[in-house]
Amino acid sequence: MAKAAVKRVALLLATLLLVTLLAYAAFSVIPGDPTHTILGLDATEEQIAALRKELGLDLPVWQRYVNWLTDFLHGDLGKSYKFNMPVADLLAPRVQATLTLTAVSFALIVVISIPLGIVAARFRGGFVDRAITVLTQVTMSIPNFIMGIGVMFLFALVLHIFQPTYVSPEAGLAAHLWFMFFPALAVALPKSAMAVRLLRGAILGELDKDYVRTAYSKGNATGAVLRRHVLRNAMIPVVTFLAMTIADIVAASIVVEQVFTIPGLGQMLITCIGKRDYAVVQAIVVILAVVVVGCNFLADALYRVMDPRIDGR
Amino acid sequence: MLDIRDLSVVFTDRKEPFTAVEKFNLQMDAGEVVGVVGESGSGKSMTAHALMGIIRNPRAHITGQALFEGVDLLSLSPRQLREYQGDELSIIFQEPMTSLNPTMRVGRQVEEALRIHGRLSPAERKARALETMALAGLPDPEAVWNAWPHELSGGMRQRAMIAAALVLRPQLLIADEPTTALDVTIQMQILETLKDINRKEGVAILFISHDLAVVRALCSRVVVMKEGRIVESGPVDEVFRHPREDYTKLLISSRPTRTKLKGGASRD
Asked: What pTM does this model have?
């Protein structure tokens, strides 16, 4: 078991290394040179050569990668040409904003889908179940940016309980989270709909199994059968689904950030790709990859705890 | 102890109403071992499940009476029935592979009925469960307690099921083809265990099987079912030696080699 855990951690690190390599390689291959962006089109050859040397662009790619990675691991994410400040300082508040949005969205998905999935399965075929089915069917097919506009329209323009201007954590954590709740809703609703259906189906699938009959024969009431026996088994595919959606949630967060003008990683990424500000782009890609890979690693560990039939291989 | 009168089970979820069990009658005394035989689809398992109150299909109409100690189980509310399930009445199934919850440790499943019905402390429950696991022939109860179902062999799982069913020392154990899914050697060992339990604890057993030879090894009386109806019943040796119905003769003669094997082993 311990050996298997070491193996999985090694695999995790190898994956992350590969991500850094790809992130670096991708921006070395695409055409364009930051010196043009910085100095403008009428710069002389000498100026460009001097700047290339200053930025380390005259070194071979592998050398630059090793230097960049070494600095990165020491916490030095490089310097942004465009904003003329350290990438770490530039990104810190944006990482916070995006990850908060992602985390609130994920929490919403769990909080929405688990009770609804259970209720739909418990009252299968009844009014509530059918209402949930229709609702999830509709919600599932709405793209995040439309959902974002819809949420904004409903809560800001119709209900007036939401001010669509970004509230940073400096204004107080509660105010920040309250603001984040609405974009998170836009991220979470389509995914929640899928999770509700998956959980409902998984519970109904489990209810037909023999061990459920055994549980009833011992004198368990339906609620106890669901709680003690069915839920853990039915959650196994849902946990897998949630783990796989983490990457989607991050991607959806970046889209929804645009709708709600949240100064997060998404906006920064788009600006910096346009300006060829590679240090920033690479840092963002690596940060997002670390988040996604790390979450999947945790989900995998959770999955193994939930399903004892999977041994430590 | 048990008096089943005109028990019928009719399903109305198909085009034509389907009668799975028709007017089943059976009386059983405390501590008695009675067999129900018949080919698959003859309604024997359905009878057992109806008696146990575990037919979940809302389109199943169960009529008649099943008097247990004078109380008609079929007329009880679900809540009242739960008082009996797993306490006075319990059941073991054909499929030991799937009848245990794969994500719950064996020990917790064995003690579950105690948890539902009893007022024992966790330590008392565990002691009681371990004792019952030994009674059910599990060699190292303490180790099995912490095992997951998939870590046990088929025979061990069925023994765990037996322990779970007996943990409250019910008056009646319904054994629904408990050995069908197991290989012949294990089958005989499990039958011996059930016999022991009947002798030591006085638990009555309603033993359901398609195999007359297995029933002969264990039961004193037998009921033969065909297409939902009882076609013949009586003391097991009499039915075995002088079957009145062609159907019974067919059941007896259908598997000569296995019959001989099991008949021989059971006389030890």
From this structure: 0.81
